[in-house]
User: What shape does this take?
Amino acid sequence: MKIVTLTLNPALDKSTSIDRLQAQKKLRCEEPLYHPGGGGINVSRAIKILGGDSLAVYAGGGTVGQKIEELLEKEKVDQQRITIKKTTRENLMVVESSTGNQYRFGMPGAKVGKKGLEDCLEVIKNLPDDVKYLVASGSLPPDAPDDFYGTIAEIAKSKNIKCVIDTSGKALVKAAEMGVCIMKPNLGELSTLAEKEEISGLEQEEVAKKIINEGRADILVVSLGARGAMVVTKDTIEYVVPPTVKQDSTVGAGDSMVAGMILSLSRGDALLDAVKWGVAAGTAATITPGTELCRKKDVEKIFKWLSEK
Assistant: This one.
């Protein structure tokens, strides 16, 4: 198994639709759809969709944790659940069909507990030698220290595993202090790393280069939303710009992007080709409804378009 994903703060994503949201009324929703969610879990699910394999390691508790396990089993995603005492959270997304507006309700994460955090570290310390990439993705649970991803990155480095970090806030800053192989910030997260409230398009290259030169990452793949991605290494800055598509939902686009990129790298592809796969997968995820991730045929079609440019 070349790729392992880690999700410390997973969720059961529930999505439904209604004609119109109205206050003080009993609202009749459509039958809900359930998907296992959380950064690393979504990355593993998208890798499976794209024809690859990975091991999804995650902390899950209670009946919701059990439901996530069952759903991953149904999708044939290899998994290792670290059982915790607290019940894993559920998130809700409601689409107002009359307007197309999306309302996303994120619940607080469950505390993993001291033993749960220690168990997560033990799993990473004992990963087999054939693991090449570790994707630590998503937010940290409320009781995890800010430098937890940094500790994960340090363990990965000691095992010669390339660590990919996709998170935000203090967790991102602390991980960067340790130095990671690949980071996938968006412009807001790049601003956080630069300790600025916001950065302009004119500054983004300079800021990214500074982060690389300071040794906080070997590779930065900066997500630019509908404008694709900026790829920054010590020697190069390149852009991958996708075709314009009609977006249905942006849920899971970032995770799909990471999945396409890391699966491609694990197969020995060049970095720019891998980012094209990532951008294709991320773009494909925006044309699917609700919490659905990318579809393989869409990804292949968009990648072909990118490769011919």
Observations:
- The first strand starts at residue 3 and ends at 7.
